[in-house]
């Protein structure tokens, strides 16, 4: 990574990370300042704060072991650490919702090295204004950021990474209208103007044209003429939805969907991201999770192992299924 982009990332972290640390620690101790008749000021706990906070930290595990098992099989264990932090400010006609989602999972099988199963860090922020306190429709500005923590590989190949931290990273920024219920369990957002910035801050991946950025230019002898670009900016239409409901006692369904189409590059070709999960509640701290995550993005080209070499093929539907027993802590 060039020093230019290292400086850019460092500057962004110094500028924005303290802000979000303060934001997510805000309302831990809501306060109000009271001025007495004598002019002195004192700070008291504000029991009527407009901030609402929700935190959840969890750990899922799945394991299978074989001892003298005649049918054969490989013992394996998988673990997933996950966390979600929500901060919502509501006052009169204004609403500001912030969400930080972190997930990281690993798997170990007999005879096979440790492998990553999940890796994501997502930040969502929505600022809304409505014409009156009875309406569920808001004029909305929305910001979304997504990246990962560690390198990703097309296993069994571990020599060449197919993704890295900030390679890719996605930033969505747009304005539109959002329908939101009071409990924020039903959300529908429509934006005719949303910019999508794809960052690939790894020159090797950028030179390959990974994740849709402009790839490097070489001459006939494979000498580098121009390096690949490390970012790509699009302007398009965005539709997102969120739905959460207890469908029967102790079974909660949650679905997130995002549909995006760029106006300039193949308008009508839709990027799809749909994450559906079922949470089966055993008790306050023990829950079973069943989920399916589907992604399709024309800019993400699949990589396959052919005769010992990693070959880039066309875009494919990405599918992930999850089943795990987890321990969660809400605070």
Give descriptors for this structure.
331 residues; mainly beta; Outer membrane phospholipase (ompla), Chain C; 2 domains; twelve-stranded antiparallel barrel; two-stranded antiparallel ribbon; 2 helices; 20 strands; DUF3078; DUF3078 domain-containing protein
Name the strands of the widest sheet in spatial order.
3-4-5-6-7-10-11-14-15-16-17-20
Strand content: over 45%
Q: Helical proportion? A: under 10%
Shape: flat
Distance between the terminal alpha carbons, to the nearest Å? 39 Å
Kindly provide the radius of gyration, computed on alpha-carbon positions and rounded to a whole number of angstroms. 23 Å
| Uncertain residue segments | 33-41
Number of strands: 20
Query: What does the average pLDDT come to?
Result: 86
CATH topology-level name of the largest domain:
Outer membrane phospholipase (ompla), Chain C
Number of helices: 2
How many structural units, i.e. domains?
A: 2
CATH level 1 name of the largest domain: Mainly Beta
Structural class: mainly beta
CATH architecture identity of the largest domain: Beta Barrel
* Order of helical and strand elements: HEEEEEEEEEEEHEEEEEEEEE
Main β-sheet description: 12 strands, antiparallel, barrel
Entry summary:
The protein has two helices and 20 strands. It has helices at 3-25, 203-207; strands at residues 31-35, 41-45, 51-64, 76-91, 94-109, 112-129, 137-147, 152-153, 161-163, 169-180, 186-199, 217-218, 224-226, 231-248, 251-262, 271-281, 286-296, 301-306, 309-315, 318-330. This is DUF3078 domain-containing protein.
């Amino acid at each position: 990574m060039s020093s230019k982009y290292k400086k850019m990332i460092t500057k962004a972290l110094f500028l924005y990370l303290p802000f979000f640390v303060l934001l997510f620690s805000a309302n831990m101790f809501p306060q109000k300042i009271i001025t007495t008749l004598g002019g002195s000021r004192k700070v008291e706990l504000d029991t009527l704060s407009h901030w609402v906070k929700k935190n959840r930290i969890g750990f899922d595990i799945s394991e299978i072991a074989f001892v003298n098992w005649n049918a054969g099989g490989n013992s394996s264990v998988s673990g997933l650490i996950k966390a979600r932090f929500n901060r919502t400010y509501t006052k009169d006609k204004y609403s500001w919702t912030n969400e930080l989602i972190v997930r990281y999972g690993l798997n170990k099988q007999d005879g096979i090295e440790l492998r990553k199963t999940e890796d994501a860090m997502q930040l969502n922020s929505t600022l809304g204004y409505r014409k009156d306190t009875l309406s569920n429709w808001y004029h909305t500005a929305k910001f979304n950021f997504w990246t990962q923590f560690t390198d990703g590989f097309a296993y069994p190949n571990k020599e060449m990474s197919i993704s890295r931290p900030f390679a890719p990273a996605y930033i969505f920024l747009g304005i539109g209208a959002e329908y939101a219920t009071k409990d924020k369990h039903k959300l529908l957002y429509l934006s005719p103007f949303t910019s999508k910035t794809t960052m690939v801050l790894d020159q090797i991946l950028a030179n390959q044209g990974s994740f849709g950025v402009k790839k490097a230019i070489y001459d006939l002898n494979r000498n580098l003429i121009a390096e690949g670009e490390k970012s790509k900016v699009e302007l398009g239409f965005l539709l997102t939805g969120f739905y959460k409901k207890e469908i029967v006692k102790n079974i909660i369904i949650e679905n997130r969907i995002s549909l995006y189409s760029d106006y300039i590059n193949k308008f009508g070709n839709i990027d799809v991201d749909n994450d559906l999960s079922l949470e089966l509640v055993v008790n306050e701290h023990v829950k079973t999770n069943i989920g399916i995550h589907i992604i399709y993005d024309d800019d993400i080209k699949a990589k396959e192992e052919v005769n010992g070499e990693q070959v880039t093929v066309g875009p494919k539907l990405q599918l992930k299924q999850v089943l795990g027993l987890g321990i969660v802590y809400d605070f």
